[in-house]
Amino acid sequence: MNLFSTHINQDKNLLPYDGTVKYFGSLYTVAEANACFQNLLSSIEWKNDEAFIMGKHIITKRKVAWYGEENFPYTYSKATKFALPFTNHLLLLKQIAEKHTGASYNSCLLNLYHNGDEGMAYHSDDEKSLAPNSSIASMSFGEERKFLFKHKTTKETVGLYLENGSLLEMKDATQTFWLHRLPPTKKIKGARINLTFRTMLS
User: Fold this and answer.
1) What is the DSSP string of 22-39?
2) In the structure, what pLDDT confidence band is assigned to residue 58 with cuts at 50, 70 and 90?
3) Segment 60-91, tens digit of pLDDT
4) CB 14, CB 23: distance < 8 Å
5) What is the CA radius of gyration of the chain?
6) CA-based diameter of the chain, in Å?
7) Of all helices (H) and strands (E), which one includes residue 70?
8) Dist CA 129 CA 67 (whole Å)
9) What is d(CA 98, CA 78) in angstroms, rounded to the nearest whole number?
């Protein structure tokens, strides 16, 4: 199933079953979104991500940052990060995400993809440190990129393009039944920054 459509219905669930995904489209003008991108690029403490896979220590070209209301530990791919204090800009973006989704968030994982060669393999954000079935608000700045979901059992896929300045919400049983990924592409030369606002268990 493909949803590569320019028409946006913010109330529509993009998943056919077993979860809820809503796409709000771009919340900003192009100038505002570009300004947010530049602010995040210069103000966030970016570091290359790392993972331990089959006993190997892997350092990615993609960079990440982890922020929160508390010094939350977050472990994925067998590597642990500790949250830095929210910046004023991140708090503002969090408030905007909360206004549109109606949810509350206490943390944010950021990813910096320098170009289309960098992506993310299929995975679920289902770590035990996250509140179960809670909302995850994904905000994107920079280059528009394709985003895919795949059902863990039926293998049905759903896709859409994430615009500069856009907001996507994943909630309910989405992480239990669906995987998601950002596929690499040779067509994209510019960078993209993605923020995923989350709710960590205390």
Assistant:
1) EEEEE-S-HHHHHHHHHH
2) confident
3) 789 999 999 999 999 887 788 999 999 999 99
4) yes
5) 16
6) 45
7) none
8) 15
9) 30
Please say whether the beta carbons of 149 and 15 come within 8 A: yes
Residues ≥6 apart with Cβ < 8 Å to 47: 63, 64, 65
Place of tokens 């596929």: 183
* Structure tokens given for 52: 């331990």
For residue 113, list its beta bridge partners. Answer: 192
How far from 39 is each of 48, 125, 141, 193, CA to CA, in Å?
19, 26, 11, 11
User: Is pLDDT at 143 greater than 90 in this prediction?
Assistant: yes
Which tokens hold the place of 88?
């004023």
**Does 95 have pLDDT greater than 70?**
yes
pTM comes to: 0.91
3-state secondary structure the chain: CCCCCCCCCCCCCCCCCCCEEEEEEECCCHHHHHHHHHHHHHHCCCEEEEEEECCEEEEEEEEEEEEECCCCEEEECCEEEECEECCHHHHHHHHHHHHHHCCCCCEEEEEEECCCCCCEEEECCCCCCECCCCCEEEEEEECCEEEEEEECCCCCEEEEEECCCEEEEEECCHHHHEEEEECCCCCCCCCEEEEEEECECC
Rounded Cα–Cα distance for residues 158 and 73 (Å) = 31
pLDDT band at 148 (very low <50, low <70, confident <90, very high): very high
Place of tokens 């920079």: 142
